[in-house]
Structures are given as C-alpha cells and as structure tokens.
Amino acid sequence: MAETLQLVIITPEREFFRGEATFVEFTTTDGDVGIYPRHIPTTVVLDPGILRIHDGKEVREAALHSGFAEILGDRITILAEAVEWPHEIDKNRAEEARIRAERKMEDSAADGSKAELALKRSVLRIRMAEKEGR
C-alpha cells in the first residue's frame, strides 16, 4: 500500500475536503508544486489554479482560489478563499465575471491587481466547467 498524507481543505463557508491522498498538486505564488508524504515542513501562499488530489490511481480536480497551505510531513492543511468541484461551477456566471474583469482591466481608474485576480478566477472556473463537459 502506498504511503498517504492527511489533507484538510477549509474555506470560510465549509470544510471542503478531509481525507487521505498519495500526492497533492496546487498552484502557489511561486508556481505549481506537488507534495508527497514526508515533505519538508513549509508554508506557501496559494494562487488560483487547479487542485489535484491523487489517491492511488484516482485523481480528483477542483478549482482552488487563493489562500495558504501548511505542509507538515504527512499532513497538508489548506485554508482557501474558495474551492469548487467542477460540477459546482456555473459556467455562465463565470463567463460574466470574466467579461467584467476584462472591462475593469481596460479602465485606467480601476485597481489592476484586483481585476487581474478576478480574471484569473473566472478563467479557472470556465476551464473547470469545460472539463466537466458543460
């Protein structure tokens, strides 16, 4: 049996996931990372990206929107702003958010960093919804 690590993912609204994984992938502000059991202890800042939870041969994917991850050997705790399974994403709403974010980025008076983050989130949601076939 493969070694596992405990994964807990918490958002302000709910405990999104609690269980075991053999490998976990996510996006940090420094790029994509993959975590195996017995990883060196560290804390990272998360960027919007696809979260992949590997459990043997099965891989579950979710849209992960910013937060922090604490990695302690055989345990990962993710405190996220939001996390969504593909079936939870409303593609039409994500498309509308993308359009709003693009308009804000064109507006010189708008906060570009907030608009850019909103654009990243909406594009991520659209990608995940399309993977789900919607």
Portion in beta strands: over 45%
Provide the residue-averaged pLDDT: 89
Structural class: alpha+beta
Distance between the termini: 36 Å
Multimer state: single chain
Number of strands: 8
Helix content range: 25-40%
Radius of gyration: 16 Å
Helical element count? 2
Question: Given the C-alpha coordinates, what overall shape results?
Answer: globular
Element order: H for helix, E for strand: EEEEEEEEHH
Main sheet summary: 8 strands, mixed
Q: Enumerate the spans where pLDDT stays under 50 for 5 or more consecutive residues.
A: none
Model description:
This protein is α+β, with helices and mostly antiparallel strands. It is 27% helix and 49% strand. It has two helices and eight strands. The protein has helices at residues 91-106, 112-131; strands spanning 5-10, 15-21, 23-28, 31-35, 39-46, 49-55, 58-73, 75-84. Strands 1, 2, 3, 4, 5, 6, 7 and 8 form an eight-stranded mixed beta sheet that branches. α1 (91-106) runs antiparallel to α2. The termini are far apart. 24% of the residues are buried.
In short:
By secondary structure, this protein is an alpha+beta fold. Helix content is 27%, strand content 49%.
Keywords summarizing the entry:
alpha+beta; single chain; about 130 residues; about 25% helix
Secondary-structure map:
Elements: E1 5-10, E2 15-21, E3 23-28, E4 31-35, E5 39-46, E6 49-55, E7 58-73, E8 75-84, H1 91-106, H2 112-131
Parallel strand pairs: 1-8
Antiparallel strand pairs: 1-2, 3-4, 3-6, 5-7, 6-7, 7-8
Helix pairs in contact: 1-2
